[in-house]
Every structure is written in C-alpha cells, then in structure tokens.
C-alpha cells in the first residue's frame, strides 16, 4: 500500500499562494463568475492541476461551482462563495480550557465514560467544576 506523500513546507506555501491568486481572479469576475478552464489558463496550469485547485477551493468553502456548457463542452463556472465574500474573524480564548484539570491528569488517555477512570465520577473534575460555578455565580451577583 502506498503512503500518501505530504507536501513540503515550500510546496504548501506555493499551493496557498496559488489558491490566493485563484481567489483574486474569481473575485475579480464578480457575479458573472469565470469558467474553470479560463482560470487554469490564466494561472498557467494544465487542466488536471486546475481541476484540483478548484476542488480544493470548493472543499474549503471558498468558491461554488456550477456545471455549464461552454462552446459545446461541459465545464464549470466558478464563483466566490457568499460567506467567503466577508472576512470571518473568530476570536478564540483558551484561558479557561487550559484550567481544566483533565489536560494535566496522568490518566487522561485511560479516562472514558463507564471506565475505571470516568469523568462523571472524577473528583478532580467535579471540584474544578464546582469552584468554576461558584466563581461565575459570585461574578453575576456583583
């Protein structure tokens, strides 16, 4: 069985650059969209690479593809996905997650529901949750 070969850091960077260029081109065509073959020709790719690029962007939810016929040939028209038009900024705070006692517990890998080490009966987790709830109640009453 052949193992999947991971792209090197340099290859990943060039893939990201290529995807960014493709998105710019698709975005520039606006609501009209662009035929898939026009995109790969503009980027200097062959049809195989161009199709793979379009599929990667589609999987990431950055574009939509609509099947169409152009000059008697079946192809796809590419459009920027609606949600890709707006930059989505998600702020993640891990401070409260770091406090969870499970992540520093020596039995983490053996802990599961119904097992010898069970989160539903763990005194460390129960004490932490009780203290966390008490702090939240105290903060809400102020």
Automatic annotation (TrEMBL):
<dbReference type="Pfam" id="PF04182">
    <property type="entry name" value="B-block_TFIIIC"/>
</dbReference>
<dbReference type="InterPro" id="IPR036390">
    <property type="entry name" value="WH_DNA-bd_sf"/>
</dbReference>
<dbReference type="InterPro" id="IPR007309">
    <property type="entry name" value="TFIIIC_Bblock-bd"/>
</dbReference>
<dbReference type="InterPro" id="IPR036388">
    <property type="entry name" value="WH-like_DNA-bd_sf"/>
</dbReference>
<protein>
    <submittedName>
        <fullName>Transcription factor TFIIIC</fullName>
    </submittedName>
</protein>
<feature type="domain" description="B-block binding subunit of TFIIIC">
    <location>
        <begin position="18"/>
        <end position="81"/>
    </location>
</feature>
């Amino acid at each position: 069985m052949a193992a999947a070969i991971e792209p090197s850091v340099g290859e990943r960077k060039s893939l990201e650059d290529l995807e960014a260029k493709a998105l710019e081109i698709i975005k520039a065509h606006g609501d009209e969209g662009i035929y898939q073959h026009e995109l790969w020709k503009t980027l200097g790719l062959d049809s195989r690479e161009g199709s793979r690029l379009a599929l990667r962007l589609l999987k990431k939810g950055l574009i939509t593809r609509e099947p169409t016929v152009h000059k008697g040939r079946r192809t796809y028209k590419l459009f920027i996905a609606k949600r890709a038009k707006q930059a989505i900024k998600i702020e993640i705070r891990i401070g409260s997650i770091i406090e969870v006692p499970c992540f520093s517990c020596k039995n983490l890998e053996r802990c599961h529901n119904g097992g010898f080490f069970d989160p539903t009966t763990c005194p460390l987790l129960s004490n932490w949750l009780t203290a966390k709830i008490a702090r939240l109640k105290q903060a809400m009453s102020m």
